[in-house]
């Protein structure tokens, strides 16, 4: 609302909505998407979903248009995924052609998975907070072939531009689908708890019970301490 006030506009003046659908913080994505859905339903508007990867790629394309001599052979979008991992995808120089699909892996595993796609690329532009955090791992593997943005670009402008110039992206509010890439932590924890409790019912001989995962002890301690 502060942005609207600064622009001298009101919510009623808005005719197009857009939202980042991920990847990113699970809670942040859910809250952001739900908020935009509510606004869209109230106003009867469509919403343009834009992935974090698309927004980062837009910045790379814009920079290449401004300086064609620095145009990369590929665009690597890396988003901080925590737990020592990055959400990553490798795109062609147009920022649209997918050379390597989205994954949630460690920096080293990501570069391993991209081996064949990176081999013929003389210059790869890396951008995003994941690239900034793990730039040493990138440079160690690719050396001078990697061009890494020192700062994380703001995504709002890119999202707005994509929504305005590509209206065919827009969908009805209920059709918005988050791009999580990795399953939410709460689902993984629930699955581990089920695995830990499976076969542990009374009356089952210990030797007949399936082996419990190594992390079951950690879950038990957390359950007791909480």
Walk me through the topology.
Blueprint: H1 2-6, E1 17-22, H2 26-43, E2 47-51, H3 52-66, E3 74-82, E4 85-91, E5 98-105, H4 107-113, H5 115-118, E6 124-127, H6 129-133, H7 135-142, E7 146-148, H8 156-165, H9 185-197, H10 216-225
Parallel strand pairs: 1-2, 3-6, 6-7
Antiparallel strand pairs: 3-4, 4-5
Question: What can you tell me about this protein's structure?
Answer:
By secondary structure, the chain is α/β, with parallel strands linked by helices. It has 3 domains: 2-51 and 156-175, ATPase, nucleotide binding domain (Nucleotidyltransferase, domain 5, 2-Layer Sandwich), CATH 3.30.420; 53-148, 2-Layer Sandwich (Nucleotidyltransferase, domain 5), CATH 3.30.420; 186-225, no CATH class. The chain has helices at 2-6, 26-43, 52-66, 107-113, 115-118, 129-133, 135-142, 156-165, 185-197, 216-225, and strands spanning 17-22, 47-51, 74-82, 85-91, 98-105, 124-127, 146-148. The strands form 2 sheets. A 5-stranded mixed beta sheet has the order 5-4-3-6-7, sandwiched between helices. A two-stranded parallel sheet has the order 1-2. The longest helix has 18 residues, at 26-43. The protein is globular and about 50 Å long. It starts with a helix and ends with a helix.
